[in-house]
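Translate sequence into structure tokens.
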Amino acid sequence: MTGLRRAVLVGALAFVLLVLGVYAYFKVHVFASPENCKVCHFIVPFYERWAASAHGEVPCLECHDYRPLNAVSGQLRFLVGTYNPRPFTRVPDDKCLQQGCHEQRLLEAREVFTRWRVQFDHRGHFQELRRGLRLHCRSCHSDIAQGEHVKVSKDPCFLCHFKGMPDGQAYTGCPSCHTAPRDDIMFRGRPFSHRKALRAGLKCQRCHLQVTEGSGVVPRHMCYFCHVQRAEMYDDVVFVHQRHVEQGQLDCLRCHPRIRHGHIKMAERLPL
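Result follows.
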């Protein structure tokens, strides 16, 4: 082996070791520190929310699917002018359900949600299709940054249960979330018994004439926030939801306007 060839091999080996060393350093030290995420990404408000949350001791990469190769790709996209400093984040379901985190959530399944004591079943929403879609943890736990970390918002619930339904009706029916009040309530100065009304065969919408406000329909122009001058797939609802909800894990409310749910309009007189 000539001296030149030996020098080339030694140089190549040194270069490979240097690259591996830099890669290992960034992976172990730079990427492991959540503080460093703020250097490239515009996430200061989100970072502060995370730091003050119950997950404040959990490193970003314990949940987010992001690797050094993603950073290299980001640098290349930055050089050609296509980099978005506010990237969409992904949290695979197996990250949430890993050992030591929320692995018992599906086993515990049912949970009382909201001050109205709505019964929520994790297993049914997670392991079965809902309106033709496979949901993710983030489908309901969407207020990860804008609200409290991993807070559950009622808005995705209202959107899924009421979109496309007639006034006063829910996709799974009112009793799937609500039970009738046990005690009499006062309505315009008179006591009213829900139990007597149900025994008499009256439906919820007999008194609750309107329980929602808003259609939840996505305006076509919302597509242009991400797809400039492209909305040709707008009418293909199945394709759009598979790409954005199942694959992209996007928050439903990023596109859909909110549906308000409550006592929007009541009957003037009670039947009993």
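Note: The longest helix spans residues 3-30.
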